[in-house]
Amino acid sequence: MDFANTPSFFRSGPKPGTRLLLCALASIALLVGDSRYGLMEQARDGMSLVLYPLQRAVNLPLGMVRHVSDYFTVQADLKSENDQLRTRQLEMSARLARLETLERELNELRSLNAIKASRNDAAQLAETLYTGRDPFSYKIIIDKGADAHLQPGQPVVDGHGLLGQITRVQPLTAEVSLIIDKNQMVPVMIARTGERAILYGYGGGVEIRYLPLHADVRENDMVVTSGIDGLYQEGTPVARVSKVERNAGAAFSRITTEPLAGVQQTRFVLVLQEKGQTPPRPAEPVVPVKKTKGKKPADSE
Amino acid sequence: MSFDRPKELLKPVKRRFIFMTLLLAVLVEMIPLPHGSTRWLPDFISLVLLYWLINQPRRVNVGVAFLMGLVADIATAGMLGQHALAYSATAYLALSRQRQLVMFNLGQQALAVLGLMLCNQSIMVVARMLSGSAFVGWSYFLPPLIGALLWPLLTKLLLLPYRHHSV
Question: Where are the bilayer-spanning segments (chain B) (predicted)?
């Protein structure tokens, strides 16, 4: 009971029960608003801007430790790495020379056939700030956002393959959903056969679903993006088939795959441009008018 | 380490200190760590929050827990409201038994904290599963265990500035 003359020692505002009711209602409203309707994006943007300096401050000592350990690298390590890089560069330059001739030929052929070159190779390098601690979703936060003109939907890769896709852009940071996240799907094809499929993330891994039993898939097949969605460039490596189970009782074969990109440990990532320039959908075919008795429609094609 | 609750008279706790420790917990939460470590690292925000709920119930109440939950939601890039709901419910449970909890020795308190943090995790699991996520496996309930083991240490640490003989 609160009276006007209750000493302040006994007065403590509303009861915990009332507070709990209020807070629980507020948080359920937030949950529903956020998950069903996505109403909270603005608020989240604002809060993330406030938290950004904290984020930077926390990353600072870690970055310094990295710098120091970079500085004190053993000379032998440097030398062996240098040698490796040099041989790799030689191999690469040989392949590059071949690729350049191929590309020239391709462009000539394209111009002959009047096909627009659809490659847009602009890419932005970003650094992973932190991995989301939420164990339900597989996301990383990178240090570029709306300030670097990133947009939701852009593909993100690392040196080995496709990493994921930008799903939320905040003023200074962006959230990348990894391909192993539960709601991520990537249109892919088997590089060896060109068979198209869809790669589903299931939370911690990826798998190819809905390929018929007779589909020609083997272990160690490379899975690359097919590029038919107008989002990912075709030919980006995504995963490697690790196991194929064909069960006569099931309608589809069970294909387990492993992502190629270091989905959990990369520090630097590349944000690519969306493929874009998708030609408009072909017009709906004209539904032939049903033949009515006696009359014949003029054009039924 | 003795598990008896400290019996000496303590200096009054400053509001600033409570704020500082909560801020520190948020910072710890935001440190970029290798991915595997999040499976066993306890939720430091809820640990510190529980400490203040049990020891300073007049300063830290359900409302503060709710606000800290919102901050945790943003910091972990989770769903907005998930931590807020769990923290406020846990805060209510802790406050309703606060007079008993504060009399326990540290071992008993750690057990109570284990229960509270398990309740915390369960609320979050239920909230996420209702919104369509898959169950993440029983390892999700490992962090509370480690959090409870850290409880005596945390208590001793947070008491350090308030001993009379330490300046």
Answer: 60-80, 101-123, 135-154
